[in-house]
Design a protein that fits this description.
Keywords: ATP-binding, Helicase, Hydrolase, Nucleotide-binding, Repeat. It comes from Sclerurus mexicanus. One of its GO terms (biological process) is germ-line stem cell division. GO terms for molecular function: ATP binding; hydrolase activity; RNA helicase activity. The protein is elongated and about 60 Å long. The chain is mainly β. The chain contains two helices and seven strands; from the N terminus they run βββββαββα. The protein has two domains: about 1-55; about 75-105, no CATH class. A five-stranded antiparallel beta sheet has the order 4-3-2-1-5, with no helix packed on it.
Length: about 100
């Protein structure tokens, strides 16, 4: 469900999908995906609002996407046979994501 959150980092209100809730001392922080900026951000629970119907109908400026025909790979280690082979993985590992972001920059 899409809600409206105030991002301290961006200093504006934007649409977001809440993905996690964390309790910090006497308040809650929500992990959100900002749909118009394609960013993940944490916001205070006080900064969350229900969107106006007209606001929900606006098209998103950013969309989640994936690379066409690109599958995640990982290094499989076999300690018994003392071998290492690259093979398919269920999701991208952190090092691959970091390397890809560096290539884009």
């Amino acid at each position: 469900q899409v809600c409206v959150v105030f991002s301290e980092e961006l200093q504006c209100w934007c649409r977001a999908v809440i993905q996690s809730v964390q309790h910090h001392m006497d308040r809650y922080q929500l992990g959100c995906f900002l749909v118009d900026y394609a960013k993940y951000s944490f916001v205070e629970s006080d900064n969350v609002r229900v969107p106006v119907e007209m606001f929900k109908k606006l098209p998103y400026r950013a969309k989640k996407c994936s690379l066409y025909c690109t599958k995640p790979l990982t290094l499989h280690l076999d300690f018994c046979a003392d071998t290492a082979k690259i093979g398919p993985a269920k999701k991208w590992d952190t090092a691959a994501i970091h390397h890809f972001r560096n290539l884009l920059q």
